[in-house]
Amino acid sequence: FRNSRSSHPARPQRLLNVVHVSDVIQAILHVTEKKLQGPTNVVCPVSRTRIEIMSSATTGTAESPTGKKVSADRLLGSGFSFLHPDPAEMPDLHP
């Protein structure tokens, strides 16, 4: 999510809707086992902005986040537990 002209992320206040690959695999197995019907979002339940991830400033930012927040509530409500619920704690996501 870096802008090619600078070291700052493009649209830094934009929300990241990401998920760790291990959670994707576990979510598919969980949905299949529970026989959940209909669409189910698989996204980290903790929302972070691009600038929070790039700067490791997970305590919040001065500006309000922008973009669409995707909810994992349906998946969580079915009893699913994320291995990596917070993108700030995903080492592969940091620059």
Write the layout of secondary structure elements.
Blueprint: E1 15-16, H1 21-34, E2 48-49, H2 50-55, H3 73-77
Antiparallel strand pairs: 1-2
Task: Characterise this structure.
- This protein is mostly helical and 95 residues long.
- The chain has helices at 21-34, 50-55, 73-77; strands at residues 15-16, 48-49.
- The chain is elongated and about 40 Å long.
Describe this structure in a few short sentences:
The protein has helices spanning 21-34, 50-55, 73-77; strands at 15-16, 48-49. With 95 residues, the protein is mainly α. The longest helix is centred in the N-terminal third of the chain and has 14 residues, at 21-34.
Q: Count of helices?
A: 3
Sum up the overall morphology in one term.
elongated
Radius of gyration: 15 Å
- Regions with little confidence, pLDDT below 50 for 5+ residues: 1-6
Percent helix, as a range, is 25-40%
The N- to C-terminal Cα distance equals 10 Å
User: What share of residues are in beta strands?
Assistant: under 5%
- Write the H/E string, N to C: EHEHH
Order of strands in the sheet with the most strands?
Answer: 1-2
Derived structural class: mainly alpha
Total beta strands: 2
Largest sheet: 2 strands, antiparallel
- Average pLDDT metric: 83
Observed structural traits:
single chain; 95 residues; mainly alpha; two-stranded antiparallel ribbon; 3 helices; disordered N terminus
